[in-house]
Amino acid sequence: MANTSDFRNGLIFNHKGGLWKIVEFLHVKPGKGPAFVRTKLKNVKTGQVVDETFRSGEKIEVIKIEAKNYNYLYTDGSLYTFMDNETYEQISLTKEQLGESVLDFLIENTETTIAFDGDNPVEVRIPQHMNIKIVETDPGERGNTAQGGTKPATLESGITINVPLFINKDDIIKVDTREKRYLERIK
Questions:
Q1: 114 and 154 belong to one structural domain
Q2: Do 37 and 25 meet the contact criterion of CB atoms below 8 Å apart?
Q3: pLDDT tens digits for 43-56?
Q4: Across-strand partners of 72?
Q5: For the segment 143-186, what is each residue's pLDDT rounded down to a tens digit?
Q6: Do residue 141 and residue 101 come from a single domain?
Q7: Which of 28, 31, 66, 161 is 20 to 30 Å from 106 by CA-CA measure?
Q8: Residue 113 contacts by C-beta under 8 Å, 6 or more apart in sequence?
């Protein structure tokens, strides 16, 4: 058993009947009263984010997680197939196991990290920044950029994000996958 002094970002533990990942935490020692830890937790299965407060020294059940690197291969109906980069073994995961934030940017040959609790996949992580091709966008209008305007663009993964007006179809851009926003154009 661990306690609140073992908190760190990314730690996954069992809480209220589910697996939760620590997104942020802060140890607080008020002038009066006992110390406590204020946390922001993300449910590993549902993606729900909640604020939770723990008494200092409170016991928690930490889950031992093993992470492996995988390469996304293809989709077969409702199953998404990944290949282990070391053993070349393939596993298939459902849409629910992946989560919406991963599916938004999943394209063939994407390097992913899959975290396992024993044999059960717990979490699928994609890179924070990815280079993705634009498949559809309106042409930019000249002279209409005094305020640095944006326009919607559809990426090859199927998601639509806002990009600057100078971005064209077939350009490759760098995208922040956590915030779903444009970073820069790749030359």
A1: no
A2: yes
A3: 877 778 899 999 98
A4: 82
A5: 555 567 788 999 998 899 999 888 889 999 999 988 889 999 98
A6: no
A7: 66
A8: 67, 68, 69, 70, 124, 125
* 121: Cα separation from own chain's centroid: 15
Q: Half-sphere exposure (CA, 13 Å, Cβ side) for 185?
A: 13
Q: Give pLDDT tens digits for 118-146.
A: 888 888 888 999 999 999 988 876 655 55
Number of domains in the chain: 3
Q: What's the CATH number where 177 sits? A: 2.40.50.140
Count Cα atoms within 13 angstroms, Cβ side, for 48: 9
Measured CA to CA in angstroms, residue 36 lies from 29, 42, 52, 55, 127 at distances of 7, 19, 11, 4, 33
Banded pLDDT at 25 (limits 50, 70, 90): very high
The residue segments making up the domain with residue 49 are: 2-62
